[in-house]
Fold Dynein axonemal light chain 1.
Amino acid sequence: LNFKMSKATTCREAIKNWEAKHGLVAAEAKEVSLICQIPFIEKMDDSLNQLENCEKLSLSTNQLDRIINLPKLKNLKILSLGRNNIKRIVGLDEIGQTLEQLWISYNQIEKLEGLNPCIKLHTFFASNNKIKVWDEIAKLAQLPEIKTVLFVGNPIYGERTNKEVAPMIVKRIPQLENVDSQMVSNSIRQLANELD
């Protein structure tokens, strides 16, 4: 048996396949899902810039290693990049103006830099990454709209449960309303205030 590794699917091919499957023009669609391509997509490329009407773009479960600038996606609200090999958050300068949710769980992210342009971001899912330092979590306090985060499964939790970690996160990002799928209650806020 001779299994030859086929080369990666390009974004251009994935978009063509999506159009064929749905009978729609991708450039006109509000939601485009390029998840779980066979073979995987390894690189985001300029063909994604044709998705000018897109409000939700899903590229999860591929082999992407980096995020690129997408200056033409002026309507993008949700970017789903979970289950890839992304190591750094970059390329959000333009889409940061409209982006409301970034789903980036199950990647290789250690540092939470590159989120500053995301002035409308209210939801940030980054579970099961490589975040090891509390100062990285604190960077999200600069985001004016941030309300909901998911960080479970990062090394920073150590042996602690979600419940034990919630006040530690709220202390660093006081404006949060939801941490790891639990509402931030008054008791969590109180515990956060008592932490050194």
